[in-house]
Fold this protein.
Amino acid sequence: MNSRPTKLESVSIMCFQHCRKDVNIFYMDNMPHDCPVCGSDLSTAELRIPPFCIPSPFLAAHTTPCSVVVQPTGGHFLEHYQILDDLHIGVTNSQGVVYEYSELGPRTVAGSSWQQCICVYTDLAGMEKWDQWLDHQCHQPEWTTQRYDETAHNCYSFVLSFLRSIYQTQSEPSTHPSNTAVSSSRDRAGRLQSSSECVNLETVLSDKTTFCEQFILPKSLLATKYIALFKRLNDERVMCQQTNS
Ligand SMILES: [Zn+2]
């Protein structure tokens, strides 16, 4: 679990079609010399679809400011992650520094140490406000080492509490760092855009399960597919896949 993550910039999964429109051919590193479907020499062949890069769902946290980011609790996505493994969640500030809560209490870590994460939500309009509120939350008495509980009061609790605070829709107490920020966020963010539909904010943030279903599951499924492709290509270098059409 301590091995260094595969450098994301060195991972490039490519896809093309040669002779059949119902077969995608994937490769990593170098394009095969011959078509794995019909055996033709590809150096002179015309391709139905020329090679294009499959977008990676992973990024380094320092490249995605004001975001909710997720990575495996142990190890790295590409090398170690198995479906149903525990995920750790944090929030980046405007500089891409990750704020996280664990048995070590609340802390900030350089976004570069979250090399392979998935970003499940971003709010670039919130820049200043996120920084101010993240610092504020870290100093609240409920986020201490002693209060940490692996299932009931954990990294998800920390992130959900932060999002609820920043996007709350009820009228707001004076304990928050800026009432101005509260009003503007309330006006703007009555609804959040999830991966597939516009959903009610209060519903999404009401509990961990709903939040995971709306924001984390769709992205982690994409990540799982990409990891499966990466692992096969790591072994086989080239693979064919029947398309659905
Ligand atoms: Zn072919």
Q: What stands out?
A: Residues 8-56+226-242 form one domain.
